[in-house]
Amino acid sequence: MADRDGVIWLDGEMVPWREAKVHVLTHTLHYGLGCFEGVRAYNTAEGAAIFRMKDHTDRLFRSAHILNMKMPFSKDEINAAQLSAVRDNNLDEAYLRPMVFYGSEGMGLRADNLKAHVMVAAWEWPSYMAPEAKELGIKVRTSSYTRHHVNITMCKAKANGNYINSMLALQEAVSSGCEEALMLDNEGYVAEGSSENFFILRNGVLHTPELTSCLEGITRQTILDFAKELNIEVKERRITRDEVYVAEEAFFTGTAAEVLPVRELDGRVIGAGKRGPLTEKLQTMFFDAVKGRSAKHMDWLSVVKS
Ligand code: PMP
């Protein structure tokens, strides 16, 4: 990743990609206290446009606030940085990674001279899964790792250190022949995937876990908005893993994963064992919105334009 052409926005300036470096004593590298976003830009009729950029920036600022990190830039500046990162790298479609981290000003948990730094990188990252997965769905296993407890890590923050748990769960799932992990909360109820929110359809009603121990996903909110438009009832509530086994449809949502059907959990086939009709409908609405084909949702797009 480090050895490529292009530029990265770092602390207010565009820096050549290979020179966007930090010191080995970078505080966040040692203790994981930092926060980040995952954002996507899609190619639309007006060129690249960032999907729900302001919502992502708002969440980044909420994460920093939860972690007590003082943001050295305004939201407008971070929005402008994201637009520049796509524009200056000549990208039509992009994954964007804004991150807030402490530098090498001090070491140890008691360091009191730490400064928050901000970077925004953008690069081409076409599909998180094999393209067929969008249609056929993926195989998932319930993780042996419990999702964060609300009073251990701060679940509303998209914090760097939170992803230790995600990576362990995903590695376990992949090494046992699955493509993603479904993580349960500390009481045994379904929480989310390693970096996705989760939905099931049962008896024509969409169900998704409450936001207690999962991230406030922006794609999740997009699906809730679509469900409202379609007059589909949604229940945000506790879900058990065996309810997933007998669901009609199940899918993950996330900026990287987009809207991704789940065809199997723990060896039990879900519904027809492929993308269900509602998942397909929501997926179509999602891609129409992100690609600027939905007149109703143009306000979700920030056009990059040169
Ligand atoms: N949960 C976790 C833990 C995540 O990392 C993500 C990805 N940001 C999501 C859910 C989905 O959130 P979003 O739709 O905003 O990408």
Automatic annotation (TrEMBL):
<keyword id="KW-0808">Transferase</keyword>
<dbReference type="InterPro" id="IPR033939">
    <property type="entry name" value="BCAT_family"/>
</dbReference>
<dbReference type="GO" id="GO:0006532">
    <property type="term" value="P:aspartate biosynthetic process"/>
</dbReference>
<dbReference type="GO" id="GO:0052656">
    <property type="term" value="F:L-isoleucine-2-oxoglutarate transaminase activity"/>
</dbReference>
<dbReference type="InterPro" id="IPR001544">
    <property type="entry name" value="Aminotrans_IV"/>
</dbReference>
<dbReference type="InterPro" id="IPR018300">
    <property type="entry name" value="Aminotrans_IV_CS"/>
</dbReference>
<dbReference type="GO" id="GO:0052655">
    <property type="term" value="F:L-valine-2-oxoglutarate transaminase activity"/>
</dbReference>
<keyword id="KW-0100">Branched-chain amino acid biosynthesis</keyword>
<dbReference type="GO" id="GO:0005829">
    <property type="term" value="C:cytosol"/>
</dbReference>
<dbReference type="GO" id="GO:0009097">
    <property type="term" value="P:isoleucine biosynthetic process"/>
</dbReference>
<comment type="pathway">
    <text>Amino-acid biosynthesis; L-valine biosynthesis; L-valine from pyruvate: step 4/4.</text>
</comment>
<dbReference type="GO" id="GO:0009098">
    <property type="term" value="P:L-leucine biosynthetic process"/>
</dbReference>
<protein>
    <recommendedName>
        <fullName>Branched-chain-amino-acid aminotransferase</fullName>
        <ecNumber>2.6.1.42</ecNumber>
    </recommendedName>
</protein>
<dbReference type="GO" id="GO:0009099">
    <property type="term" value="P:L-valine biosynthetic process"/>
</dbReference>
<dbReference type="InterPro" id="IPR005785">
    <property type="entry name" value="B_amino_transI"/>
</dbReference>
<dbReference type="InterPro" id="IPR043131">
    <property type="entry name" value="BCAT-like_N"/>
</dbReference>
<dbReference type="InterPro" id="IPR050571">
    <property type="entry name" value="Class-IV_PLP-Dep_Aminotrnsfr"/>
</dbReference>
<comment type="function">
    <text>Acts on leucine, isoleucine and valine.</text>
</comment>
<keyword id="KW-0663">Pyridoxal phosphate</keyword>
<keyword id="KW-0032">Aminotransferase</keyword>
<dbReference type="Pfam" id="PF01063">
    <property type="entry name" value="Aminotran_4"/>
</dbReference>
<comment type="pathway">
    <text>Amino-acid biosynthesis; L-isoleucine biosynthesis; L-isoleucine from 2-oxobutanoate: step 4/4.</text>
</comment>
<keyword id="KW-0028">Amino-acid biosynthesis</keyword>
<dbReference type="GO" id="GO:0052654">
    <property type="term" value="F:L-leucine-2-oxoglutarate transaminase activity"/>
</dbReference>
<dbReference type="InterPro" id="IPR036038">
    <property type="entry name" value="Aminotransferase-like"/>
</dbReference>
<dbReference type="InterPro" id="IPR043132">
    <property type="entry name" value="BCAT-like_C"/>
</dbReference>
<comment type="similarity">
    <text>Belongs to the class-IV pyridoxal-phosphate-dependent aminotransferase family.</text>
</comment>
